[in-house]
């Protein structure tokens, strides 16, 4: 399923807007990007940074954490735009959860 970059960016924005405000207001020093192709062709998304649970008083003056959502790999595993919408939402929630210090094991238990 091919989705234009513009439409895909809209889907990522909608997924971020769907996160409850109590979480989005707690997000600190993180930026979300849409990338076309990941270094690892199996990645749907990637969080790079220091999770909120690991930040200490010494955490200052650093570049923002980054969340990358990969258009090509998400589109490659989907057959319809509805599937792309669902996968984008799931991937965005998964990567935002990493920002809050939730690891892959717990995310898999939760269905992400």
Describe what this molecule looks like in 3D:
The chain has a 3-stranded mixed beta sheet with strand order 1-3-2. It is globular. It has helices at residues 5-17, 21-24, 71-76, 81-99, 104-109, and strands spanning 30-35, 45-48, 65-70. By secondary structure, the chain is an alpha+beta fold.
Number of strands: 3
Q: Helix count, per DSSP?
A: 5
The percent range for strand residues is 5-15%
- Following the backbone from N to C, one meets helices and strands in this order, namely HHEEEHHH
Enumerate the strands of the largest sheet in spatial order, edge to edge or round the barrel: 1-3-2
Mean pLDDT: 94
Biggest sheet details: 3 strands, mixed
Distance from first to last alpha carbon: 21 Å
Morphology call: globular
- What structural class results from the helix and strand content? alpha+beta
Map the helices and strands.
Blueprint: H1 5-17, H2 21-24, E1 30-35, E2 45-48, E3 65-70, H3 71-76, H4 81-99, H5 104-109
Parallel strand pairs: 1-3
Antiparallel strand pairs: 2-3
Helix pairs in contact: 1-4
Briefly characterize the structure.
This protein is an alpha+beta fold and 112 residues long. It has helices spanning 5-17, 21-24, 71-76, 81-99, 104-109, and strands at residues 30-35, 45-48, 65-70. The radius of gyration is 14 Å and the shape is globular.
List keywords for this structure.
3 strands; alpha+beta; 5 helices; 3-stranded mixed beta sheet
